[in-house]
Amino acid sequence: MEHDFHGKVVLVTGAGSGIGREAALRFAQAGALVYAADLNASGLEETHALARAAGGELRTAVVNVAQEDDVATLLARIDREQGRLDAAFNNAGITGGTHRIEDYPVDDFDRVVGVNLRSVFLGMKYEIPLLLRQGGTIVNTASVAAITGPAGMSAYAASKHGVQGLTRVAAMENAARGVRVNAIAPGWTETPMVVANSAQNPAFAALASRAIPAKRGAHPGEIAEAALWLSSPASSYVHGQLLVVDGGMTI
Ligand code: NAI
């Protein structure tokens, strides 16, 4: 189904790379005015250039999604400039290192949980008041690690399980108020996050070589497409779900 987001204001975090960039471009191509947020200013500039080349409308915001002031300032800006928000895709994330729990550095654990989980809480905290005005959607990026426990990835798995919990609570709190909240669980997706890790991290290489029934990793666009669907009226009766998009990895 062709998506139509004309007249809609959409926020995408982690839009300077990978899945977030693909989603931002697709929302813009479907007519949305997109706020693309990321910590990485140069990545955002590339996303901006790609959107402009495709004729889409996209504004950038250099934001640390784990910092309340940054998130509050961004949503205040969207409110000031547009007076509305129709969809939010809370997608920024990091994997962190791979260590057994007894060796996991506490600072790293806090950092991963901050970027992956605290960010989703903060995002929703400041997005929901805007979304409630005219109704809207939230999609949070979890992972197959929201339903499995990959050894060595305690912080990542805990943060992504947490994203699923936050998504369910937000869906319950808002289902009758016109705001639908869902999450996606990508499997192995060919983005800089995975490419960077696979070079230095045997756990990722092992994961890559393990059988994925579809026999390939996802293109980031295949994950972005799920986010667009969950943000569109086509999914109007879907609340609080974790949509697994993993080539069959968790069957
Ligand atoms: P990526 O590394 O290509 O993109 C992530 C983006 O998030 C980067 O542009 C980065 O600068 C941004 N970011 C990191 N920390 C930030 C912060 N504190 N504030 C603002 N922006 C920040 O990675 P990818 O693969 O596109 O990941 C997107 C999401 O998908 C993440 O939440 C990740 O955990 C999730 N995911 C990815 C999978 C994969 O195989 N690539 C599998 C399952 C989930």
TrEMBL record:
GO terms for molecular function: oxidoreductase activity. It holds the Pfam family adh_short_C2. Keywords: NAD, Oxidoreductase. Residues 8-191 form the Ketoreductase domain. InterPro entries: KR_dom, NAD(P)-bd_dom_sf, Sc_DH/Rdtase_CS, SDR_fam. Belongs to the short-chain dehydrogenases/reductases (SDR) family. This is SDR family oxidoreductase. It comes from Pseudoduganella albidiflava.
